Amino acid sequence: MNKERRKQLNEIAEQIGSLKDQLESLRDEEQDYYDNMPESFQGGEKAEKMRCCRSKMAIAAKNLPLRRSLGA
């Protein structure tokens, strides 16, 4: 692999890592919002949608690769 393609791959790896961080942050914010929701609302339809969304975000973040440098 030449230097230019390696550089491009490293940039993509950094972008993926950044997206993973953002996704995990959003998931954590959603969890905090749910945790601070009154208990009477935690069994409702909105709470169920929140749980489903958090689960999907967790799965997506888990499936994104760790941020790694490919070496320049």
The computed structural class is mainly alpha
- Note the run of SSEs as H and E: HH
User: What is the arithmetic mean of pLDDT?
Assistant: 88
The rounded distance between the terminal residues' Cα atoms is 10 Å
Low-confidence stretches: none
The overall number of domains is 1
- How many H/I helical runs? 2
The backbone outline, from C-alpha atoms, is rod-shaped
Helix content: over 70%
Biggest beta-sheet profile: none
Task: Describe, in short, the structure shown.
This protein is mostly helical and 72 residues long. It has one domain (3-63). Helix content is 72%, strand content 0%.
Describe this structure in words.
The chain has one domain. It is built from two helices and no strands. It has helices at residues 3-35, 45-63. The radius of gyration is 17 Å and the shape is rod-shaped.
